[in-house]
Amino acid sequence: MQQIIKAKIEHAKVLSEIAKASFIPAHGHSAPKEDIYNYLIQNFNEESFIAELKNPENQYYLIYYNEKIVGYSKVVFNQISKDIAAKNATYMSRLYLLKEFYGLNLGKELFDFNINLCKRNNQSGIWLAVWVENQKAISFYKKMGFKKVGDYDFKISETHSNPNHILYLEF
Q1: What's the Cα-to-Cα distance from 110 to each of 16, 123, 124, 139, 159, rounded to whole Å?
Q2: Beta bridge partners of 58
């Protein structure tokens, strides 16, 4: 059985664990190992998640499968992008799912939840950044109707950035 709930501060530790475990299969080979390790330590630690969960602009949602948290999303309403004219578009910063739960349509269920959440909050669309080499994610988002509207360099370290596409889905 699946369930989606809004994350609370007490979920910071599990968010940190899922973030690290999900980032490595998708991006672990995108930069030198030391850069990836440092990125994970700096950005996906429990304290960072506590700070983000305290910020009311950040909305985190957890997806459960058989009573286990197996993924999460992070959305920010009314987030302006230089590539999108709409002022009331949502930025989907993350949609992470543990690899062992791929193929169960849980990512799509969480994605659909976010789309409905955005529509209920009068958003005109949803946008995201995706690494140009993450073909699995790009295929998924294009299948959902996203269009490429720009480019972005995702900074992993002081010496390494990954090129990303900015994708947008207008409602």
Answers
A1: 18, 17, 19, 17, 34
A2: 76
Helix (H, G, I), strand (E, B) or coil at 150: strand
163: CATH: 3.40.630.30
**Which amino acid, residue 66?**
N
Domain that holds residue 66: 2-170
Alpha carbons 77 and 115: distance in angstroms, whole number = 11
Question: pTM (2 decimals)?
Answer: 0.93
Q: List the helix and strand counts (H, then E) for the chain.
A: 5, 7
Q: How many domains does the chain have?
A: 1
Per-residue model confidence as pLDDT tens digits over 58-110: 999 999 999 999 999 999 999 999 999 999 999 999 999 999 999 999 999 99
Q: How far is CA 80 from the centre of its chain?
A: 17
**Any bridge partners for residue 92, and if so which?**
75
Helix (H) or strand (E) segment spanning residue 73: strand 68-76
